[in-house]
TrEMBL record:
Protein name: Uncharacterized protein
Organism: Penicillium bovifimosum
Key word Signal present: yes
Signal peptide start-end: 1-19
Key words, A-Z: Signal
Entry superkingdom: Eukaryota
Signal is among the record's keywords: yes
């Protein structure tokens, strides 16, 4: 009986809480209210979300140092890869210490990913191939990863932003690409690719440049391109072996030409010199959005920490009465 009561309380409490909306909602933070049913955490932020297939092109130039030429199998070729992806362009928050007018987050996904059923943040998903964020958008690490500068004299959308990725140490995260094995007896064609964004022994003397990011967006489309250099490390045939030694370095281009995902996007103001959104997702005032016209829009998402905490306390109370 007590078990039933506590279970009931757990089911009811969030509903009671939701009648008042999201009590923790703070309109001066760039987060959406948490009372939106079925909205996965990858849509946590106020802003616009765009979908596209990201295309990556890699052209080898040198081997593991300037003094090593590209192996024969890779010479004179450009390799491509494509990933399902989305680009979030979101409101800046108090954690942004720099002057970036917005935060950008590009995520690349495996084909099996179902973005509407993911729980948790994008980087906690095993279906995520790679992400590139302009700032750490949740944590309190208050340092932007790269600067984005808006073109001068902007009066409204489309907004045009550019930035260089310098010494951001993005080499710690990478994405896979199929090249060709340099040595077929030790390596497979799959390589782990990382952006070159700082000086290190393997790029000494090589004429590489920092990755340059260009973003254009308005209420309908968003384009994101990155031009720079990357290093590829072949995976060994024996999965337990160390990464192959035939490192290859060359030019990389990442291109995303996206279309607005209105269902998950707030309304971009079309007459503002800085990107600004009218909040609509979660407020039932945009018929294109998730949850519009749903009387029970207020029921909580599964991961509602406030409700979880209240639930545990109430369950404990019932257990001891
Ligand atoms: C969800 O929470 C927000 C913020 O508290 C509130 O304005 C909105 O009305 C809530 N939605 C519903 C349907 O309760
Ligand atoms: C809302 O967020 C702002 C900015 O971080 C903060 O200054 C303010 O205290 C918050 N308000 C509440 C009620 O927590
Ligand atoms: C490349 O070779 C030149 C000439 O032998 C040498 O000075 C330089 O240090 C070498 N660079 C690297 C990165 O090995
Ligand atoms: C993705 O997940 C949602 C929610 O669980 C489900 O309704 C939908 O059918 C799934 N889509 C695919 C293609 O599996
Ligand atoms: C970003 O801009 C700030 C202020 O101009 C500067 O101090 C910082 O070094 C820049 N960061 C990068 C990664 O370029
Ligand atoms: C391939 O790797 C094997 C094992 O390290 C080595 O014996 C062989 O010489 C390599 N072949 C070439 C073409 O580099
Ligand atoms: C290095 O690359 C830049 C930009 O592509 C080019 O302008 C310059 O001439 C190159 N320098 C050398 C020494 O190749
Ligand atoms: C993005 O690129 C497409 C294709 O070139 C173009 O039609 C669209 O206007 C661009 N979007 C923006 C916001 O510049
Ligand atoms: C964009 O992708 C998301 C996640 O897969 C999906 O829910 C949404 O319907 C897509 N929207 C468009 C316009 O393709
Ligand atoms: C700007 O938005 C307003 C209100 O949504 C709309 O009436 C107007 O047509 C829009 N203008 C342009 C140029 O898109
Ligand atoms: C929708 O409602 C929210 C909360 O009241 C408000 O901030 C926002 O401006 C409204 N959006 C539109 C398009 O009216
Ligand atoms: C409204 O939300 C409830 C609760 O999650 C859901 O079961 C129902 O399908 C939604 N209805 C519409 C029309 O979206």
């Amino acid at each position: 009986m007590r078990r039933i009561l506590s279970t009931l309380a757990c089911c009811l409490l969030p509903l009671i809480a939701s009648a008042e909306g999201d009590a923790k909602y703070n309109a001066s933070l760039p987060f959406r209210p948490s009372n939106i049913t079925g909205l996965s955490d990858i849509y946590l932020w106020v802003g616009s979300y765009y979908n596209a297939t990201t295309k990556i092109e890699f052209t080898p130039e040198i081997g593991s140092t300037i003094n090593e030429s590209v192996c024969e199998n890779l010479q004179g070729q450009t390799f491509t890869a494509e990933y399902e992806s989305f680009l979030a362009i979101t409101e800046r928050g108090p954690y942004n210490l720099g002057s970036n007018p917005v935060n950008t987050l590009l995520t690349l996904w495996h084909s099996d990913a179902n973005l509407t059923s993911l729980s948790g943040l994008p980087w906690s998903s095993s279906s995520l191939e790679w992400y590139l964020e302009s700032a750490p958008t949740v944590s309190s690490i208050n340092k932007d990863i790269f600067n984005l500068t808006m073109s001068p004299d902007t009066k409204g959308p489309p907004y045009k932003l550019t930035g260089a990725i310098k010494d951001a140490d993005l080499m710690v995260t990478g994405f896979d690409m199929d090249l060709k094995p340099c040595n077929t007896s030790t390596e497979i064609s799959r390589n782990q690719m990382t952006l070159v964004d700082r000086d290190w022994s393997n790029n000494a003397g090589w004429n590489w440049t920092y990755p340059m990011v260009d973003v254009q967006f308005d209420s309908r489309t968003a384009n994101f391109t990155l031009n720079g250099y990357a290093a590829g490390f072949p995976y060994p045939i024996n999965p337990r072996g160390s990464m192959g030694r035939d490192e290859v370095q060359g030019k990389i281009k990442v291109s995303f030409f996206g279309v607005i995902d209105s269902y998950h996007s707030d309304t971009l103001v079309n007459s503002s010199s800085t990107p600004t959104w009218l909040r609509t997702v979660g407020f039932g005032n945009n018929s294109a959005n998730i949850g519009y016209g749903n009387g029970s829009l207020g029921s909580p998402r599964p991961l509602h920490w406030g409700a979880v905490a209240v639930c545990s306390v109430v369950s404990l109370a019932f257990m001891y009465f």
